[in-house]
């Protein structure tokens, strides 16, 4: 017998990603990324955050709001495997799941009281698009949730994959200083789908009110334009 549960949006994230392209494939990969968690009016009671300041990291349970499908598939094509090899959906973190739920571990940088939105959470390392609904927040407990010797399956095959980033000075100066480290780290992770290897193709990625254009040649990503 099927059960239907109601999940409420308790908060939304404010990030510098207006669209999916370019978002890191996992949380924590780019700690330079900063974001805010803004609670919905119903959940702005400061008592709900009492004690949270004692934790360095938190789990976010959220929804793939831009990747909802009516039907699910038991297998998916993980981008890091080139997009041409199928794996079981439960062996991946694909957004196309029976229930479109995401799980991210982020660093809690601080809790900030505001007049307009109540207490907000400042976090680092989030892999969420701007406006993503958050359904729950839980503290990270390192003594039971950290297993350094755990096996990461096929997900570890390209964990050290990085590109060299060539950003000419003229374009580098157009990047606001507070976003430079994060943007260069995003580009080094290679935002392209793994199955796209055309060195003549120019990509455009929106980040922090910029449209960043680039192409990839071998192991080097070349920035060829920044529009603000």
Q: What's a concise summary of this model?
A:
The protein is mainly β. It has 3 helices and 12 strands, in the order ββββββββαβααβββ. The radius of gyration is 19 Å and the shape is globular.
Q: How does this model look, in words?
A:
Strand 11 and strand 12 (220-227) form a beta hairpin. The chain has helices at 142-145, 169-172, 177-188, and strands spanning 11-14, 34-39, 57-63, 75-76, 87-88, 101-114, 118-124, 133-139, 164-166, 203-207, 210-217, 220-227. The protein has three helices and twelve strands, in the order ββββββββαβααβββ. The strands form three sheets. It has a six-stranded antiparallel beta barrel. A four-stranded mixed sheet has the order 9-12-11-10, with helices on one face. With 228 residues, it is mostly beta strands. The model has no long low-confidence stretch (mean pLDDT 92). It is globular, with a radius of gyration of 19 Å.
Describe how the helices and strands are arranged.
Blueprint: E1 11-14, E2 34-39, E3 57-63, E4 75-76, E5 87-88, E6 101-114, E7 118-124, E8 133-139, H1 142-145, E9 164-166, H2 169-172, H3 177-188, E10 203-207, E11 210-217, E12 220-227
């Amino acid at each position: 017998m099927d059960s239907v549960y109601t999940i409420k949006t308790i908060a939304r994230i404010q990030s510098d990603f207006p669209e999916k392209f370019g978002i890191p494939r996992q949380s924590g990969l780019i700690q330079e990324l900063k974001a805010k968690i803004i609670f919905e009016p119903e959940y702005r009671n400061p008592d709900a955050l009492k004690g949270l300041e004692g934790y360095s990291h938190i789990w976010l349970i959220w929804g793939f709001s831009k990747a909802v499908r009516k039907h699910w598939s038991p297998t998916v094509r993980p981008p890091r495997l080139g997009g041409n090899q199928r794996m079981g959906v439960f062996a991946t973190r694909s957004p196309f799941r029976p229930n479109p739920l995401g799980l991210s571990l982020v660093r809690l940088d601080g809790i900030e009281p505001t007049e307009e939105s109540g207490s907000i959470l400042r976090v680092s390392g989030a892999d969420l698009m701007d406006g993503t609904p958050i359904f729950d927040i839980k503290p990270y407990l390192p003594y039971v949730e950290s297993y350094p010797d755990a096996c990461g399956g096929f997900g570890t095959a390209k964990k050290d994959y990085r590109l060299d980033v060539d950003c000419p000075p003229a374009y580098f100066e157009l990047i606001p200083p507070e976003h430079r480290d994060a943007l260069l780290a995003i580009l080094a992770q290679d935002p392209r789908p793994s199955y796209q290897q055309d060195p003549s193709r120019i990509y455009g990625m929106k980040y922090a009110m910029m449209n960043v254009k680039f192409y990839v040649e071998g192991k080097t990503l070349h920035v060829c334009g920044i529009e603000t």
